[in-house]
Design goal:
single chain, 193 residues, mainly alpha, disordered C terminus
């Protein structure tokens, strides 16, 4: 019996799981400790969780295709996993702020602006420098938390490019060449059964 894995389906499943976990983390933080949302600790935790998921899913997918895959074979499943997880969260955040909790964008803007101003003051910037920087930050925060349609599309596109670069890096890290070029992974799967 030959064991075949549809790596495209695995990538989609992994992206859905990762996106769902990010949404649960977001909702738990928003409703239990919203002040954490603008903190560096929350950003660091979400980055570490993201890296852990990326590593786990890359290793898991490589194992499911027989333990070996080239850079090209690794790139697209990794990118699909990454971009689907990001896309789910991206769309959820917009829907959440528009329909589920309309106070979310305003509260987040206020928290980010307060945190930014506090950070700038701690660096000893002059009032004029802070004022200029806060104007720019206000514009960026407005686009981030209350984007119009074109800003949302551009934001998604920029994020997708960044995730593609991440997928390139992970594909380079997790590619593994088969030391026996005549080895047939499907045959090995049948021998183990």
């Amino acid at each position: 019996m030959t064991s075949t894995v549809n790596i495209k389906n695995e990538a989609l499943k992994n992206g859905l799981i990762w996106g769902a976990v990010n949404i649960v983390l977001f909702l738990a933080t928003w409703y239990l400790a919203p002040s954490l949302m603008s903190s560096y600790a929350y950003a660091a935790i979400t980055i570490l969780i993201g890296i852990a998921f990326a590593i786990f899913f890359c290793i898991d997918m490589r194992k499911k295709v027989g333990g070996y895959w080239t850079f090209g074979e690794a790139l697209w499943p990794i990118f699909v996993t990454f971009v689907l997880a990001m896309g789910i969260v991206f769309v959820f955040n917009i829907v959440f702020g528009k329909y589920i909790d309309p106070s979310y964008p305003e509260k987040m803007k206020e928290m980010v602006l307060t945190k930014t101003e506090s950070t700038m003051k701690s660096f000893g910037l002059s009032d004029e420098e802070i004022s200029k920087a806060m104007d720019k930050t206000h514009e960026n925060v407005e686009q981030q938390f209350s984007p119009n349609f074109s800003q949302a599309i551009v934001g998604f596109g920029i994020s997708a490019v960044m995730y593609f670069i991440g997928a390139l890096i992970f594909a380079l890290i997790f590619k593994r060449s088969n030391p026996n070029p005549f080895d047939n992974p499907a045959q090995n799967n049948t021998e183990g059964n």
